[in-house]
Amino acid sequence: MTPQHNVTPATDWWRDAVIYQVYPRSFADGNGDGMGDLAGIRSRLPYLRDLGVDAVWLSPFYASPQADAGYDVADYRSIDPMFGTLPDAEAVIREAHRLDLRIIVDLVPNHCSDQHEWFRRGLAEGPGSTARERFHFRKGRGENGEEPPNDWESLFGGPAWTRVPDGEWYLHLFAPEQPDFNWEHPAVQDEFRSILRFWLDLGVDGFRVDVAHGLVKAPGLPDMGHGEQLKLLGNQVLPFFDQDGVHDIYRSWRAVLDEYSGDRIAVAEAWTPTAERTALYLRSDELHQAFNFHYLNTGWDAAALREAIDSSLDAMRPVAAPTTWVLSNHDVVRHRTRLGGGLDRARAATLLMLALPGSAYLYQGEELGLPEVTDLPDEVRQDPSFFRDTGQDGLRDGCRVPIPWSGQQAPYGFGDGGTWLPQPADWAGLSVQAQTGDPGSTLELYRAALALRRTHPGLGAGETVEWLAAPEGVLAFRRPGGLVCTVNVTEAPARLPAPGRLLLSSRQLDASQDDFVLPADTALWWEE
Ligand code: GLC
């Protein structure tokens, strides 16, 4: 295999990088079948370069029956035909590097697909076979083993165990089509180091590690003892999450990453009870970053935001890892809708995030100000939690609707066919084409903000923010290089002295006077 050339070598590029999440199904469709694909992604890489991001994280595109939109992997080294071929993936990596973009791929080590060769072999070879040892097969409880082996619940609802025809049960923390690997087994450990090398050899710059906190289960698989149903990706203390044994795995992965030149990284999706527990994944011989879900879950409240910012920075300091920031991804309600204040609030939240020290993760379509699609008919939904849960909570199709590129009606330039989830009839004005060149558009705001992050590296630098005096409900802080960010987190205008020259505003306003009015849900960047 020919190693791809790397982008401009830069040590620690990831420490203040802006990383854009592409959800391959919904980004761009190159072959007109209604499903996004690698050819579509490749054709839109120049758009991402011009947007000004540093790296692109691709959600899974591996061979998969798609029981959980590709997070059920049947073969970690091949591409699902719906997304293209391995040469297509190599072409995306090569083309991205040519454009000075880095590529991070998703790695799903907690579970595979029930169609993975190892699991099929385990089913076929029956109880007591060595093939079953790579998963968690157990006899059931009850007189005839008719009860699950313990009381664990799937994060998608229902029991975390499924019984197979020979009477044994297997563990799946997610859908029944996603059996959990047994990470105590050396073959599992070896296989994943080999998968890491496979993708590193192809030139990827890093991995996003799915359910990084879930790989190791408490010895003996003790009952979790609970009353209430688990919420998707909760952060309780649980016998299947955040066990100390996971750290040995990440140490061995770090050794593999460090064998390669070019600062290859891994970012953990780790839900843990505290930020201090998350920091353990980021010790210098483990992973590089973790998503900051505490920040994502913080509401639009000045005191809560300030606390989340300070505590996130404090928690990472002992391990010298950069803090990350994220507002949207493929598992949560888009922040324009979630924060409850419409587009103005979403834009202010983005400028606040992009002024914080560390690395920021963007989710495709947030730069267009897309709202959550809340009225998808039940018959088009594909999220497995929809089929297992009784409530509407935690449904994830509404943030996965294909994004609009151009034109007046669906599929808005997404491709030449339809779209796997229907797009709203009123998205024409939100398309890339409609927003390009309009200085008031959300897309141009993101472009301007990301351009300023490049010309003013102080915006992403350092490990602290210097808080400045500000009226109640307003956040004001100074960043290295004399940059000041002011954000009005209240629903009423606030009056404050102008700290300098206005660089960027999340909404149009007249700030020429010394003492100016900062409207509700507005963020400003200043140069002192
Ligand atoms: C992660 C992914 C989510 C997926 C789950 C199971 O949380 O982000 O989309 O359903 O893992 O793989």
Automatic annotation (TrEMBL):
Pfam families: Alpha-amylase (PF00128)
Single GO biological process annotation from the record: oligosaccharide catabolic process
SUPFAM superfamilies per record: (Trans)glycosidases (SSF51445)
Domain Glycosyl hydrolase family 13 catalytic: 21-396
SMART domains assigned: Aamy (SM00642)
Recorded GO MF terms: alpha-amylase activity
Highest taxon above the source species: Bacteria
Homology family: Belongs to the glycosyl hydrolase 13 family.
PANTHER family: ALPHA-AMYLASE FAMILY MEMBER, NEUTRAL AND BASIC AMINO ACID TRANSPORT PROTEIN RBAT
Protein name per its UniProtKB record: DUF3459 domain-containing protein
